[in-house]
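User: Round two. Same drill as before: sequence, then structure, for each protein.

Assistant: Same drill it is. First protein:
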Amino acid sequence: MSYRNWSEFWWENITGPNYILTNITECLLNNVNVVFIVPSDLPWRYDMRRILEDRVKERSDLYELLVEFIDAEDEYPADEKAGTFLLKKYAQNMEVLNGFRDRGQKSIQEYLKKNEVLRNRIIWVKGLTGTAAKDWMEFCKNYSSEGINTGLFVLEVHNVGNIVESSNLKSISYEGNISANDIQVFNEFILNEEHGSDELWNNYIATVTACLCDQDAEISELLIRTNIFKSEPPECGLQRIAGMQKYQRRGGDEHSSHILALVRNNDENEINRRIWIAQVKILFPIIEMERNAIIKKYKTNIEYALQYNDIGQYNEKLVYPEDVELGTLIYMMHNNAPNSEYRMLYIPEQEVRDRISFLRECRNTIAHAKICNPQQVKELVTSHNSFVK
């Protein structure tokens, strides 16, 4: 069974995103304007706005409340001040429109409130950058709202530098409130719902997609659904996503480190570095657990080999079986004891001997900051449980 809408799940059920919406809602209900600092690649931005609008309406109990969205890029003239723009757009009549005097005793903020120009409105201005963002923030910093009945603001801004808050204006950052754990947990929910209960595979896929997609939960969710991790590298799914019309602008900022920008620029080094980080987190522990399981199973044989052979590791004589690394196990299996025709260590099962060699191959790959290929990952993850029983 699949959750009806993963965008809703992200914004309403995951800690970081839900905290953001809760914080914005509380600010508005306490008559405080909000600067919402967002990346250009904010996931599911339209759903986020709808969810927040529903929350505020539900909490305010104001039937006539309007949340009005203004696209700064399309609707806001670059040479116009925020207050003047609002007066022109929302003044109820010509008398109010023409009644403000720039050198009068009242500020434009006080004039708008006195004449109820923004009555029962939350003005959400999206796409603000540069000078326009600074102008709107300065306006809202001095707009002392008495509640939704006099109007409130949400400014969705990007790349604006330092923000000076006031009693009338608070800032909330997307990037500052979304953790790697938020993405990881979100991915695991998706996998458990849609891919069944293979915990180890789910953990690996969740971690790889989280490392690759960083804070973009939308691309992470899509990658989980479109990539066949057991047979193809994640780059295959990412290439398909990068080619989708819907995501042509995703990762489009200059010098962007977004995963789709990396894919389009063929930045294999950074993509592989992110995959490697995930493999260090998930595959290294798998390898270590299997090494411990093998040593435990053949502890008597290994103890005997260490007792009667002078075997060193990292320039020290080995004494305890638990310290024997995979490479040393292979050395002991492949070399005879001094003055003997028998190997130092005999492990009868060919399957186990092959597994030890495979584990060392994978460990050496990751230890040298390289990544295991999909076939190696599949073999490591799929067969893990049979070797740790």
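Second protein:
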Amino acid sequence: MNKNILPAYIAIIAVTFALPSCISNKKYRELDGSKMRLNESFKRSQLEVRDLRARTQTMTDQLATQEQKYESYMNEVRSIRSSYKQDSVRMQNLMSLVDLKVEEFTAYKIETQKKIFGYENEIVKLNTHIRKQDKVIQVLSFKIVKERKQFVAQKKEIINRYERKIKNLATIKSSNGV
């Protein structure tokens, strides 16, 4: 009889370790893959934010340079106006030229400000996207931890159940005198 129980013990232990977990490997790999894709998306978003910030800085620097040019043009206009009484015909020609430059600069300034506003809006959108991705990563991480804990608890319960059955079999065997 002892020879028959040993294979039964081995079979019970083998079945215990062969039972499927509460979360399949496929599901786990899907969740893990999803987490990795979210991390990659997050990294790409961070790079995009960095690039947009660099572009915004460049545009800001260009705007400052253009504002200096604008100030320079305005100084030139003041100078021309002071000599207006001396040479009115020449002054009117120069004034037309200066007004044209001021209009060009103003149009350029407005266009540049619109671009900066657009970049700032993109940065806000990307920051919002990054925060959402962070939340998704946190939720997925929490799910993985929770499912792992459930798996461990189920595995312990199965092992305990089979250990009790083995003890019961041993008790029955010893009470039968085998």
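The two ends are 7 Å apart (CA to CA).

User: Perfect.
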